[in-house]
Amino acid sequence: MSIVVECVSKRYGAVQALDGISFTVQEGTVLGLLGPSRSGKTTMIRLLATLLAHDSGRILVDGLDIYRDARMLRTRLGLAGQFVSLVPQLTGYENLVMAGRLCGLGRHRSRSRAAELVDQFDLSEVADRRLDRCSCLVRCKFGLAAALVHEPRVLLLDEPALGLDAATRMRLWDAVGNRVLGGRTVLLATQCLEEADLLARRITVIDCGQVVAEGTGDEVKALTGGVCLEAELRNDGDLAAAQAVLSPIADAPLVTDLRTLRIRTPTARGAELLSEAVRILSQNGVQVREIGLRLPTLGDVLQAVGQRAVADRK
Ligand SMILES: Nc1ncnc2c1ncn2[C@@H]1O[C@H](COP(=O)(O)OP(=O)(O)OP(=O)(O)O)[C@@H](O)[C@H]1O
């Protein structure tokens, strides 16, 4: 089952949440819908889940119109993430049974399916614990398991690993990624480029309800010029000096965060720029708490896309 979104717009009063957005998720693949907060990800997922109506455009799932054939499509869709709430006072197992019942499974089948999922997700030790007494990682696993209770062919995931730090997020996907995603058509909404890059065959980047970039993970990362040089200063009094000495050697404009005293810039020269920056900062007496290269983030992608747009307009 493929997902085709054609020029879809959605407005809430004065807010244009989606503004002519188009993308396709090929059958059996994962598409990462990557965007910052308030860019329209949840709105897109809610439209696909038939929980909301769009103002214009067209959405097809498996060739069927999402509204005309909503009833039939709903049984084939699984949802996990922000707006799908499990009941915190129930145990994980009870939540899975409830999810089965809500999907129309009989009592017996709901129980056997819940037991199957507990087993497959390696959750037996915590299955009888109230969900609000479980770790965030365990809650995320139960959220994903609940979305699979009726074995949907299409999965809509709205930041399903929200609340997990980067390392735990990777542990989650290491443990259950294949089971959750394998063979399904998946739309994964996330703010984390690393997560989208790990899980998705293609990534569509959105900002302010519009598609601003798309491609494979490598293509999207390449927009930023590769890696990012990032320095954290010890004293805010050094910020101006650091900017003055780094600007001439950087490959792209510097971005400075006054709150965290961090200066960053994307670079294609990696280690060469790093050693140059260390030398020049030390020569000029700028005290650095930490300096290094890191993988690009969504913020770097949006900055690169913005700079391209400005350059194109000139
Ligand atoms: N029910 C609503 N009524 C009014 N405005 C809304 C409503 N839901 C969302 N919005 C607005 O629409 C825009 C897109 O919101 P949406 O939740 O789709 O973005 P998002 O990318 O999922 O954000 P987040 O990552 O913070 O959840 C935002 O400006 C938001 O404030």
Provide an overview of this structure.
The chain is α/β, with parallel strands linked by helices and 314 residues long. The chain folds into 2 domains: 3-218, Rossmann fold; 227-295, Alpha-Beta Plaits, CATH 3.30.70.100. The chain has helices at 41-48, 70-74, 92-102, 107-120, 136-147, 166-181, 193-199, 217-222, 239-246, 270-283, 298-313, and strands spanning 3-12, 15-25, 30-34, 56-61, 64-65, 77-81, 154-158, 185-190, 202-207, 210-215, 227-233, 255-257, 262-267, 288-294. A 6-stranded mixed β-sheet has the order 6-7-8-3-9-10, with helices on both faces. Strands 2-1-4-5 form a 4-stranded antiparallel β-sheet, with helices on one face. It has a 4-stranded antiparallel β-sheet with strand order 12-13-11-14, covered by helices on one side. α3 (92-102) packs across α4, α3 packs parallel to α5 and α5 runs parallel beside α6 (166-181). The protein is globular and about 75 Å long. The mean pLDDT is 92. One of its GO terms (molecular function) is ATP binding. Its main location: membrane. This is ATP-binding cassette domain-containing protein.
How would you summarize what this structure contains?
It comes from Amycolatopsis albidoflavus. Keywords: Antibiotic resistance, ATP-binding, Nucleotide-binding, Transport. By secondary structure, the protein is of the alpha/beta class.
